[in-house]
């Protein structure tokens, strides 16, 4: 895949994050880094930066870096811990998943690496970890400073407890949509693959990717399979499935306002559980679908503002939630109550 083929190998190759690159190059030069909190929108280079730093710090970085996908752990719980070869020695079936996780991280972080001064423990989507797990990691960070460094990656820094944030160097990754870094990156990849990326194709790529470099590169690769001249038509063909997904979410919003409760529950379970949609990600899709349904400026601005308030409450709760369904269902209930309080009409709904 092109996302892996063109993943930066060195810190200085990360595009669009000059301030972060400057800070980390100094640490890499000294062959050390502090604990890090990398935050910013999705697809801005946080994970790529972690691997680039590891590649420069270690001769064999695969032995000295552990990347923990917190979303996978929170979904699979004990199964995730039991199936990971690195943690089998610390697994205890008699304990809860959170207690196993805390104990495993504590013991693993205390082990000194064989070929380096310290190893890296990386937590992707760290905001999904519950508060007690984060508190345990804070204590582990203090006790294991000689053997491990901790890196927390998140799009929601508010979901990380202050005790961890204060013990890390906080580095913000800005959206690539706000610079020409995305243009440069996509044009370079297209050129190296022997494809011609037209201005129209580039524009649509940026529109659909919304600053997510990984999504843009994936769409570029898919479009190249259709034609080596990647124009707007080729990009539209690639994102057709994405529009199918958008249509599903729009139909879900329709079901909410039509009061089809059985269908709402069934569709929500399919999208959250079967399709493994992340709660905050699904909330973003719901927000976009609602905006398309509401006649902003021509409908009822009070109702629209109230819908947004309920979204904000759900978004906050999802930061530390173990069950995405609960808070999304609560928000949907409030949407229905708000609609019903305005009478039989659907204010502002097309």
Could you walk me through the main structural features you see in this protein, from its secondary elements to its overall organization?
There is one protein chain. The protein is 57% helix and 9% strand. With 350 residues, it is α/β, with parallel strands linked by helices. A five-stranded parallel sheet has the order 2-3-4-1-5. Strands 6-7 form a two-stranded parallel sheet. Strand 3, helix 7 (131-143) and strand 4 (148-154) form a beta-alpha-beta unit. It is globular and about 60 Å long. The two termini are 41 Å apart. The model is unreliable at 343-350 (pLDDT under 50).
Strands, helices and their partners?
Blueprint: H1 2-5, H2 18-29, E1 36-39, H3 46-57, E2 65-69, H4 70-76, H5 78-83, H6 97-110, E3 119-124, H7 131-143, E4 148-154, H8 162-165, E5 169-172, H9 181-192, E6 196-197, H10 199-209, H11 213-226, E7 229-230, H12 232-238, H13 240-258, H14 261-274, H15 279-293, H16 301-318, H17 324-341
Parallel strand pairs: 1-4, 1-5, 2-3, 3-4, 6-7
Helix pairs in contact: 6-7, 9-11, 10-11, 10-12, 11-12, 13-15, 15-16, 16-17
What about the largest sheet? Answer: 5 strands, parallel
Question: Strand-residue fraction?
Answer: 5-15%
Span between termini? 41 Å
Oligomer state of the chains in this structure: single chain
- SS summary, helix count: 17
CATH class of the largest domain: Alpha Beta
Compute the number of strand runs: 7
Strand order of the largest sheet: 2-3-4-1-5
Average residue-wise pLDDT: 84
Please name the CATH architecture of the largest domain: 3-Layer(aba) Sandwich
Domain count: 3
Order of helices and strands: HHEHEHHHEHEHEHEHHEHHHHHH
Radius of gyration: 22 Å
Structural class: alpha/beta
Topology-level CATH name of the largest domain: Rossmann fold
CATH superfamily of the largest domain: P-loop containing nucleotide triphosphate hydrolases
